Amino acid sequence: MATRLFATAAVTITRLLRQCRAVQLVGTAAAVIWLTHAYSMGQESEHAHATRVPHLYGYDENDFKRHVQEVTRSESEDTYDYDVYRSHDGKRLDCYRWPQHGREILSVTHRGQFKVLMRPANNAFLDEQQHFVAWYNRLEDGIQFKNGYVQHVPMFWKFGFDPSRRYFYMASPDGFSDVAAVLTPAKVVARVPLEINRIFLKDDKLFVFGDDPYYAAKKINREIPGLIYGIRGSALELQREVHIQRRAAGPSPFSVVDLDNWSSNVLLIDIRDSPTGTRWFVYNMDSATLHDIGPAQTYGFFLDHDVWSRK
């Protein structure tokens, strides 16, 4: 799960409450159309979207749409923000066109290069090699994996993938989740005592972050619980617990947006009404410190570089 300031590895506020999605694919080789182009990124500086946190880039909705339209020559109402995910290595953003306009994915990399991939249905998950690994048209029909396995999603459950698309989770509203490898989706490698909403693979470790279990009883979000698993062959071994305390508890969402590949930083979003409004925080897992870095933007990603900048 990409990404806007939620689901998916970055997400809008509305998609924080919306589960990740995938797309049906029939015949991967025939479904992908590769079109490689070079384009001018305008007169913006290399650091136009950089924040004061290393590798963290923020984009507001209008700016993001403008960049996409410059590349695609599309109309203003034709947007590529149905889903937006970052690649595992942080060198690519995959921007999904809204299905009513088409099934293209605009895959933007470094140095003004992009590819257009054609998907045969509304949602899909791409791995590091830009191959589709799982897909569906209707969630009630289940998620189809590349090896033919179909994962059924019970009512009110959530699911999502890590940015590398090597692992995925199925999260129960009863406060637990099952984690499996994409290559062997029928085999649960760990039952996690959290209702997961974000998962990341980094340095042979799997980082999972979930909903505050206190919310189910009191409708208050006080913290983000997390677990770090070491990968031992096909098994996961719990190594550490993480508890990210919210500065002021409240009923509104407090969630993980992205995990930094270059440090122990985690980007968080704290959704509030006025006067403070919705803000971004960065939590450092080594020092257990939380820093307010300002108002949240529509998209936030830890990236190798600003993919929209002119270089």
Describe the protein.
By secondary structure, the chain is mostly beta strands. It has one domain: Methylamine Dehydrogenase, Chain H (7 Propeller), CATH 2.130.10. Helices cover 7% and strands 42% of the residues. The strands form 6 sheets. Strands 1-6-5-4-3 form a 5-stranded antiparallel sheet, with no helix packed on it. A 4-stranded antiparallel sheet has the order 7-8-9-10, with no helix packed on it. Strands 11-12-13-14 form a 4-stranded antiparallel sheet, with no helix packed on it. Strand 19 (254-259) and strand 20 (265-270) form a beta hairpin. The longest helix has 12 residues, at 61-72. The model is unreliable at 1-46 (pLDDT under 50).
Helix-strand layout with pairing:
Layout: H1 28-31, E1 36-38, E2 56-59, H2 61-72, E3 84-86, E4 93-96, E5 104-108, E6 113-118, E7 123-126, E8 132-136, E9 143-145, E10 150-151, E11 158-161, E12 167-171, E13 177-181, E14 184-192, E15 196-202, E16 205-210, H3 214-218, E17 221-232, E18 235-250, E19 254-259, E20 265-270, E21 279-284, E22 289-295, E23 299-302
Antiparallel strand pairs: 1-6, 2-23, 3-4, 4-5, 5-6, 7-8, 8-9, 9-10, 11-12, 12-13, 13-14, 15-16, 16-17, 17-18, 19-20, 20-21, 21-22
Radius of gyration: 19 Å
CATH second-level architecture: 7 Propeller
The CATH top-level class label: Mainly Beta
Number of helices: 3
- Give the overall shape: globular
What is the number of strand segments?
Answer: 23
What's the domain count? Answer: 1
Helical proportion?
Answer: under 10%
Kindly report how far apart the N and C termini lie.
Answer: 29 Å
How much of the polypeptide forms β-strand, as a percent range? 35-45%
**Structure classification:** mainly beta
Q: What sequence of helices (H) and strands (E) makes up the elements?
A: HEEHEEEEEEEEEEEEEEHEEEEEEE
Q: Summarize the main sheet.
A: 5 strands, antiparallel
What kind of assembly state do the chains in view correspond to?
single chain
Low-confidence stretches at least 5 residues in length (pLDDT < 50)? 1-46
- CATH domain fold name: Methylamine Dehydrogenase, Chain H
What would the average pLDDT be, to the nearest integer?
84
Give the strand order of the largest sheet, numbering strands 1, 2, ... along the chain.
1-6-5-4-3
